[in-house]
Amino acid sequence: MTVSNVYPTAPLRALDAAHHLHPFSDMKSLNAEGSRVIVRAKGCWLEDSDGNRILDGMAGLWCVNVGHGRPEIAEAVAAQMGELSYYNTFFKTTHPPVIKLAGMLADLAPPAFNHVFFTGSGSESNDTVMRMVRTYWQTLEKPEKTVIIARKNAYHGSTMAGASLGGMAPMHKQGGLPIPGIHHIAQPYWFDEGGDLSPAEFGLKAAQELEAAIDEIGEDKVAAFIAEPVQGAGGVIIPPETYWPEIARICKEREILLVADEVICGFGRLGKWFGSEHFGIEPDLMPIAKGLSSGYLPIGGVMVADRIADVLVNATGDFNHGFTYSGHPVACAAAIANLTILRDEKIVERVADDIGPYLQKKWAALAGHPLVGEARMIGLMGALELVPSSPARRRFAGDAGRAGTICRDFSFRNGLVMRAVRDSMIISPPLVITHAEADELVRLTEKTLDDTHAEL
Ligand code: PLP
């Protein structure tokens, strides 16, 4: 990437602070400090308005799987704009890009998944899930099965339903959440909550909370359980091996639909097309977004297993749900071009067999740093648990030691974007990251840890 014209940072920041209400941002500090202005990106590298090059360790927001600035996607989008820039998919209408994308997804997904409902985002996908699972049970004449069990500290989006399904306490505090009909159980977070149990024992215990919740609420009232294969925004919480098989057993035996939120884990992040394939689970529904278009245009969806689709398709009357941009032709064109790159360049296989194991090994070595209590990574998503003295599983006391000492929310320190979640530092780079860039990512992470250690 050539560093080209430098932007006038101060006036841009002032204009931004004056008029732009940012998502998930402390607006007061934004007024005082201003935002970082990103002006262009290529591959794994961002450039800001001062001409700094920054390694994008978060793939944007866990989404730019094929890397930034792929001309094939830009060209596909431009061509589709010229052909059919918009038409809807309501009321039995359709168009070639949405048909082609639905077919491609059916080919790429596990064999039981041959249907997809399109949305504009991951949040809309999870709103759709809520309505679909309840409609499913209504159609089967079990309308009292409405409750959805989700997990504390999960992230399922920012709409009223998405944020309610999610288990983020700071989100629930704003705007009267959660909405009724949602029940949260524990997360399989061994590092923080495992106590004296081994990871395997703790994984089983966390999964069995689902069964206890079903008993408490009543099987005849529970519609579904929703979870991310690996919790992302909650802190890259990789469940112990015992967790998912037990969850799958419970859902099957207790007649509860299993929803795997694949918004982050889908499209290669764990080295399989879908994260649930990594854990060998067969969900009933899979909300998708992010890596579907690598974030080039907003698009999401819900992949529906045939056994569920058969019921929904044969329900009487319309499914009264959809979005103006469901199956937007230009977003579909971006997604088709993106999936073609992922498939033809064997990027998913590369995460499983090459760059994933390569970065995981280097990442694991960071556990030797005095500030790191655990260094974990699966596929290409990882976390460092920060502690006052390694290798103890003990937290810093109070707020003083929070990862906020390294950064607030997003860290751009030393030219590397990482994310802070409580006392952990998160990484989720583009899947096309090279070996040399992976080395650089680890070097910059280590430097940030060293700098922080020296300042504590
Ligand atoms: N589900 C998961 C697992 C996510 O990580 C996210 C976003 O980070 C969402 C849903 C919501 O997606 P969106 O921000 O596109 O609405």
Automatic annotation (TrEMBL):
E.C. designation(s): 2.6.1.18
Keywords for this protein: Aminotransferase, Pyridoxal phosphate, Pyruvate, Transferase
Gene3D superfamilies: Aspartate Aminotransferase, domain 1, Type I PLP-dependent aspartate aminotransferase-like (Major domain)
Cofactor(s) this protein cannot do without: pyridoxal 5'-phosphate
UniProt family annotation: Belongs to the class-III pyridoxal-phosphate-dependent aminotransferase family.
PANTHER family attached to this UniProt entry: AMINOTRANSFERASE, AMINOTRANSFERASE CLASS-III
Domain of life per record: Bacteria
Native source organism of the sequence: Methylobrevis pamukkalensis
Pfam families according to UniProt: Aminotran_3
Stored NCBIfam families: PRK07480.1
Protein name: Omega-amino acid--pyruvate aminotransferase
One GO CC annotation: cytosol
InterPro entries the UniProt entry points to: Aminotrans_3, Aminotrans_3_PPA_site, PyrdxlP-dep_Trfase, PyrdxlP-dep_Trfase_major, PyrdxlP-dep_Trfase_small
GO molecular function terms noted in the UniProt entry: beta-alanine:pyruvate transaminase activity; pyridoxal phosphate binding
